[in-house]
Structure formats: C-alpha cells, structure tokens
Amino acid sequence: MTHDELLQRIDHMAEVVFPAIKERTELITKTQKEKFDKTHTIVKINTGSYMMIRLPTRSSKLAPAYQGLYIVIRKTQGGCYVLQDETRALMPRDYPPSDPKLISVDETALADELVEVQAIINHRANIGRREYLVQWKGQGPEEDEWLMPDKFTNLKTIQDYWTRREKQELSTMDKIVPTTPKRGRPPKKVSNNEAANSAPKRRGRPPKQPK
C-alpha cells in the first residue's frame, strides 16, 4: 500500500466508517433507553419532599416493607439522596433512588396535628391495603381512627402490634389442652371359680350339731 493509498484509507475511515459506527451506537443506546423507560418509572424527587425507606430485610411477610418518615435535604452528584428524620437529624448514610418511596404529606398537618399513638388495637383488609385501628394517647375510644401504614411516622408501632397478636395467639393455643382419661389400675378380672369362692355367705343361724 502506497502512501497516497494509506492517506485515502485514513480519510475514508474518518469520513465514513467512524461516523457510521457513532450513528449506530447512538441508535442502539436510544432503543435500549426507550425499552428501559417503558418498564422502569424514574420518579424525580425534589428537595423538601417526604419519603419512606425500604427495609433491606423483613422478618416475615407481615412485617412492614418501609420505615420512617424522612425529608429530602439534597441530592448528591452520584444521584443519591441525603435525608433527615422527624427530629431534624441527618441520616448516617445516603440512599439510592431505588430505596426511597415518595409519599404525600401535608406539612402543616404534620406540625400541628402530630399525635402520639397509644397502641394499635385492630386491623382490617388484606396485605397491601391493610388499615390499622389506632388508639390515640390521652384520648377516648370515640377518637380511635383507621390509618394506612404510610401515616405512621414510626413503623415500630405496627411491628409491636403483630408481636403482641402472635403472643396472644400462642397463649390461646396453650390453654386449649385435650382432656385425657385419668390414670389408674384397670379393674381386676375375676374368673368364675374365684367369683364362686369369693361370693358372700348367707347370714343366719349355724346348723345344729347332732348330739
């Protein structure tokens, strides 16, 4: 290959081959992105939004999947979120977009109507749409209210409720004990001869003896 042919080959690569490779790469990347966006919804979370955090592990299917009520302080360059809890303390680590769950909270209601829960006394509906009957601290039974799990600022209250129910069910099962016959020796079987010999004698005067 001569010097001129080499220069022509270089010009051909720069003007035809490399642009074609770039165009093909951009087309494939765009197609993959569109396919990914159809099955994955990326929610943009703004600063000041309220969210809950997905728990990495669950002790059982009835255990809550999310915890807390946190406020987004800022977003890092890596795309993670810096969060603050209800006591205004920063969380010890940042959370990726897959962990938080965005929720809608009225800030004025959170500040003015935050009431302490005395206990959860009942539940209804199925998993995913379950509600809990809450007894408020310092208020009467007429103020009891049904709430969804995302209304709790601390999901430990829900965990305590299920722990208490499990203990009650175990206690109830322990009280149900099947009755068993009394232990003792079986009645002794008596044969016919023994029954005849052991039959009580008739009472009466003894027979007269001959003189």
Automatic annotation (TrEMBL):
Annotated ranges, domain Chromo: 115-173
SMART domains for the chain: CHROMO
Stretch forming the signal peptide: none
PROSITE patterns: CHROMO_2
Lineage top rank: taxon: Eukaryota
One matching Pfam family: Chromo
Database matches in Gene3D superfamilies: 2.40.50.40
Region ranges (Disordered): 169-211
Biased composition (Basic residues): 200-211
Record-annotated membrane-spanning stretches: none
Database matches in InterPro entries: Chromo-like_dom_sf (IPR016197), Chromo/chromo_shadow_dom (IPR000953), Chromo_domain (IPR023780)
Protein name in UniProt: Chromo domain-containing protein
